[in-house]
Amino acid sequence: MLSANLLTVGAVAARSGFAPSALRYYERLGLIEAVRTTGGQRRYRRSVLRRLAFIRAARNVGLRLNEVSDALATLPGGRTPTRADWTRLSRTWRSRLDDQIAALSALRDGLDSCIGCGCLSLRRCAFSNPADQAATGPGAAFLPALLRRPQPHDR
Q1: Tens digit of pLDDT for each residue in 108-129?
Q2: Is 133 exposed, middle or buried (0-12, 13-18, 19+ CB in 10 A)?
Q3: What residues are paired with 125 via a beta bridge?
Q4: Which range marks the domain in which residue 24 is found?
Q5: Residue 87 and residue 142 in one domain
Q6: Residue 87 backbone phi and psi in degrees, to 5
Q7: Are residues 104 and 50 in the same domain?
Q8: 1 or 82: which carries more pLDDT confidence?
Q9: Region 77-105: what's the mean pLDDT?
């Protein structure tokens, strides 16, 4: 008999906000684990919800799945991670978040004159190309590097 601490795919999807297909994908990548019933159905330990919350937060701050995998691999095996474990793991994000905050602040503060795209269509680009001096080619040449980074769906 399965423990009451095990959740169905549907229950985990509802509680985590991830689609069942995402859960299966993350399982294939080794980011989460499931146990199987005698009928072959997936069941997840309740602790998977914390891992999924971490995955969502990590993805939202720009970590790639391989970085998420590396981070999760530092968690202890054989026990549910503690608050100290999660604090240690998320501490590595601090500089990344600081960089993102600075880049987004610069973008926000310059949006009324330019978004840093490099198109040079504005008569005067006070944000990143005063007096229209640069001709750098296509793309968001003047956005902070963090905001220019290609996203996985762009490739």
Answers
A1: 776 666 555 555 555 545 555 5
A2: exposed
A3: 129
A4: 6-92
A5: no
A6: -65, -45
A7: no
A8: 82
A9: 81
pLDDT in tens, 30-40: 999 999 999 99
Say if residue 61 is in the same domain as residue 109: no
With b meaning 16 or more CB within 10 Å and e meaning fewer, what string describes 74-107?
ebeeeeebeeeeeeebeeebeeeeeebeebeebb
- Determine the Cα angle at 32 with ends 30 and 35, to 5°: 105
pTM: 0.66
CA distance 149 to 140: 10
Residue among 53, 50, 89, 57 nearest 73 (CA): 89
Using DSSP, state whether 128 is helix, strand or coil: coil
* Nearest alpha-carbon partner for 102 in 140, 61, 144: 144
More confident residue, 104 or 77: 104
Q: Is 150 exposed, middle or buried (0-12, 13-18, 19+ CB in 10 A)?
A: exposed
